[in-house]
Specification:
This protein is of the alpha/beta class. It has helices spanning 32-40, 54-63, 67-70, 91-97, 129-146, 199-228, 256-259, 285-292, 372-375, 378-384, 397-401, 428-444, 457-460, and strands spanning 8-14, 42-48, 101-106, 120-123, 150-155, 235-241, 260-266, 274-281, 332-337, 348-353, 356-361, 391-392, 395-396, 406-410, 451-452, 455-456, 469-471, 488-491, 499-500. It is built from 13 helices and 19 strands. β15 and β16 form a beta hairpin. The protein is globular. The chain starts with 7 loop residues before the first strand and ends with a strand.
Length: 501
């Protein structure tokens, strides 16, 4: 029998979904099961990933740490082999230590498994969501048999692109008869304002819609299995996506389309059908799960060397429908991106408040790189061959590829992040304040990309005792490389995370 005292956790993770969900204001897409889940729980409108890249984003959820803290700098795949540091604590490890049955079904995309030590590992690249639901029900049955509380992650493959093709999303395969096929036409889809409305885009969005609808059907089957096995009344269900849609101007960027994601939570005892406007970072999911399980959110494994987690449990504010004061709940989040694929090196850090967004682009002298599947997409083919200046939504293609060292946007006036305020003298004080706040966070999290003069202050800390002084500028100036008669920062010999001006 399922024990009513057990507090279980079900994490449902879509792949490249973004906010293409009916309950998030996209009526043209059919997602009845996610809409039903939202009607039974809480829909967050301001939830943010730390990075818009698959492995990195998942690692942030599973460790409560940004990728520059946990080491999962980019994709974990055979050609890159990025993986999380061995000393990092993870959700499956901590919950398993507290006698939870832990498991994962579907996509994993992080490693190594010695860090992410799920007890039941059922990895698969299938889009057959009926099979995925069957594996979930088998896991629920095992938990009932073992009479243990449990934590299960479901990693859907949908709606990720089929990377073996240029414009398909896995819809050419015939799956289980329980898996529906959505009938949708190019004129039926909605093209977001951050993307160009072209025939190629609509062709791909038809495929994208079908893949989303299949994933939604899987959500419904899994929730039905949860109910069937008697766990619905004592399970925290959380649904989200790893990053935004798999198109340029979204995935692999820290623009809003890449980071601002769906987050739906259904908790027993919580009033249903709520909309919560408060800002949630993906690093807040880890402590939320621990608190739900009755575990101190600050808990670490024995003799842990894992960095201190900075996220906060959002269980106490789950049922809030009003915007809480900044003295009670955060009004900002941070983002950290370094790699996607190995060749996609473009480190950037971001601070997003409720009104402003500040980007620090550390490798701004490099072209912004394309993920292979986005470069090969039919959508980008249409964009680059369109008449007139090539545009991605309202952004010129040249501005997408050539970005400045700093970007600053007023999101109330400019939600697409098109008009950079950083060079504007009228916004200098704001720029400097946000820059300082971001750098304080970089220092706090020991970010290797906390730079001055184009070099890592974190790595130069070893020379503090020798009195090394560094030009107080973001990037190296090849025209004026000297250190005389300019403002310098002095590394602090007593605090290697600090500097003195």
């Amino acid at each position: 029998m399922a024990s009513p005292s057990h507090k279980n956790i079900l994490l449902l993770l879509a792949d490249d979904l973004g906010k293409y969900v009916g309950c998030y204001g996209c009526p043209s897409i059919r997602t009845p099961n996610l809409d039903r889940l939202a009607s039974q729980g809480v829909r967050f409108t301001s939830a943010f990933a730390s990075t818009a890249s698959c492995s990195g984003s998942r690692s942030t959820i599973y460790t409560g740490l940004h990728t520059h803290e946990n080491g999962q700098y980019g994709l974990r795949m055979h050609a890159t082999h990025f993986q999380t540091f061995e000393h990092v604590d993870s959700l499956p490890k901590l919950l398993r230590d507290h006698d939870y049955l832990t498991g994962i079904v579907g996509k994993i995309h992080v490693g190594p498994l010695s860090v992410y030590s799920w007890e039941v590992v059922n990895e698969s690249g299938t889009r057959n969501v009926a099979w995925v639901a069957d594996q979930c029900e088998a896991f629920f049955q095992q938990a009932r048999s073992d009479s243990k509380p449990w934590y299960l992650t479901v990693g859907f493959i949908d709606p990720h692109r089929d990377v073996t093709t240029r414009g398909e999303f896995g819809n050419q395969t015939t799956y289980d008869k329980r898996v529906p096929v959505l009938d949708v036409k190019p004129e039926d889809v909605e093209i977001p304002n951050w993307l160009s409305d072209l025939p190629e885009t609509r062709k791909e969005f038809v495929e994208y819609y079908q893949s989303i609808h299949r994933m939604d059907a899987g959500v419904g089957m899994i929730l039905d299995a949860l109910e069937h096995q008697g766990f619905a009344k004592n399970t925290l269900v959380l649904f989200t996506s790893d990053n935004g849609p798999p198109f340029v101007n979204s995935k692999t960027t820290l623009y809003e389309a890449g980071l601002n994601l769906p987050l739906i939570a259904r908790a027993p005892g919580c009033k249903p059908g709520l909309e919560n406007p408060n800002m949630i970072s993906f690093i807040d999911i880890f402590p939320t799960f621990l608190e739900w399980a009755g575990i101190d959110p600050a808990t670490r494994t024995k003799n842990s060397l894992s960095p201190r987690r900075l996220g906060r449990s959002f269980l106490p504010i789950l049922s809030q429908t009003a915007l809480l004061d900044a003295s009670i709940w955060q009004h900002h989040i941070f983002g950290s991106h370094t790699f996607h694929e190995l060749q996609n090196y473009w480190p950037t850090r971001v601070l997003r408040t409720r009104k402003y967004k500040y980007h620090r682009n550390l490798a701004w002298r490099l072209d912004f790189p394309f993920a292979a599947d986005l470069y090969a997409s039919l959508t980008f083919e249409g964009i680059r061959n369109s008449d007139g200046p090539a545009m991605i939504g309202g952004r010129q293609l040249r501005d997408y590829i050539f970005r400045p060292a700093e970007e600053l946007y007023d999101l109330d006036e400019d939600p697409q992040e098109l008009h950079n305020l950083a060079p504007d003298p009228a916004h200098t004080d704001l720029l400097l304040g946000l820059r300082k706040k971001l750098e304080n966070w970089q220092r706090q999290t020991k970010d290797l990309w906390w730079n001055r003069d184009g070099v890592s202050l974190t790595m130069l800390a070893r020379y503090a005792k020798d009195g090394l002084a560094i030009p107080d500028r973001l990037d190296f100036d090849v025209e004026n490389p000297g250190t005389k008669d300019i403002k310098l920062v002095q590394l602090d010999p007593y605090d290697h995370s600090g500097v003195k001006t």
